[in-house]
Specification:
Helix content is about 30%, strand content about 15%. It contains seven helices and 15 strands. Strands 5-6-7-8-13 form a five-stranded antiparallel β-sheet. It has a four-stranded antiparallel β-sheet with strand order 9-10-11-12, with no helix packed on it. Helix 2 packs antiparallel against helix 3.
């Protein structure tokens, strides 16, 4: 028979429970209250507390070592290396090392924090009365006071070994993500500052694929050229020509206004980058009477008789000129790379 079937007058005044005697006459479902607080060994013996502190510090230190191992694995293990792991089989050594080291680093931080909370932080049960959602000023003050008490009872300031190793572990773990950014691609280094043009490289006609002579360039024509040795079937052809594309025009020497342009030309043949300095569109329109070239994308206009300076449009600077001459066979050859970086907004590309 359950207590629900017993008449209320026959119920005992007190009922024995695991938490002591509880009055049930007036309310059979009365709150039994909290059990008596049992102190942990760390609360009683400082030696035990020190031992727990060393365990937490050891976990944080292992996390730091695992993070260093993650970075070392990423740098030293070849991506094609495989290892046999029973019972998984053959797997990528790099993936296995990265997964294990990062897993250990994160696990040890979590395990250390849990062990710290369970053995050293205060474990006194605190009952809080329910209250409206909107806190009164007194409640807010109490919350701040409880937070300060919690910070004090966590012994964060006292346990310096835990605090310092925790800071070390949390500082090193994000490096794992930073190292992975390396997989975004190879570093550009100085590749943006150089093209395929070098001293002695012949200028090759883009249409005929033959080396150019000065006599091949007639006044009023626009000729496109590429460096010798660059072929359309090359895997990186588009990438190379994105910086090395060249246009040549022939201007009567007396009509060339810029002194350096005249010095870098040969019998009035001048060579300029075909890549617009606005957003990198290929320039393809030439007006032979004025020697102006026009970018079809945003109408930036450059004067090829005056150092290819910008005379209209949004382009920020002149087109880079390639210093040219002729070799012993009479072919046009470069005297080096462009003096200025090719393309748009170079200072924003680093």
């Amino acid at each position: 028979m359950s207590s629900q079937d017993i008449p209320e007058e026959n119920l005992p005044a007190e009922q024995e429970t695991g938490h002591g005697s509880v009055a049930v006459k007036d309310d059979p479902f009365a709150d039994p209250g909290l059990p008596e607080h049992e102190h942990r060994i760390q609360d009683i013996e400082e030696r035990a507390a020190r031992r727990s502190e060393r365990v937490v510090a050891m976990l944080f230190t292992i996390s730091m070592l695992a993070t260093v191992g993650f970075i070392a694995s990423y740098v030293t293990i070849d991506v094609d290396t495989s290892v046999y792991i029973f019972p998984i089989g053959h797997i990528s050594a790099l993936n296995f090392a990265l997964g294990m080291t990062l897993g250990v680093a994160l696990f040890c931080i979590g395990a250390g924090a849990v062990h710290w909370a369970r053995t050293l932080m205060s474990d006194v049960e605190v009952a809080a009365e329910r209250h409206p959602i909107e806190a009164e000023p007194e409640v807010r003050a109490q919350v701040l006071s409880d937070f300060a008490d919690g910070a004090r009872e966590s012994q964060f300031g006292r346990r310096k070994l835990i605090r310092n190793t925790l800071f070390g572990a949390l500082a090193l773990v994000p490096l794992s993500g930073v190292v992975l950014l390396r997989d975004l691609g190879p570093l550009p280094e100085t590749k943006l500052r150089h093209t395929a043009w070098k001293k002695g490289k012949k200028l090759v006609n883009m249409n005929t694929n033959e080396p150019l002579r000065a006599s091949d360039i007639v006044v009023g024509s626009l000729t496109f050229a590429k460096p010798e040795g660059v072929e359309e079937h090359d895997e990186d052809f588009q990438q190379v020509m994105g910086k090395a594309a060249l246009m040549l025009v022939r201007i009567q020497p007396e009509n060339i206004k810029d002194k350096r342009e005249l010095e870098w030309s040969h019998e009035g043949v001048v060579a300029y980058s075909k890549i617009c300095t606005h957003v990198g569109c290929p320039i393809s329109l030439y007006e032979q009477q004025t020697h102006h070239v026009l970018c079809p994308c945003h109408q930036s206009t450059f004067d090829l008789s005056d150092g290819a300076r910008v005379i209209f449009g949004p382009a920020g600077h002149a087109l880079p000129q390639l210093h040219i001459d002729v070799d012993d066979e009479g072919y046009l050859v470069a005297q080096g790379d462009f003096a200025e970086p090719v393309g748009p907004a170079f200072w924003e590309r680093g």
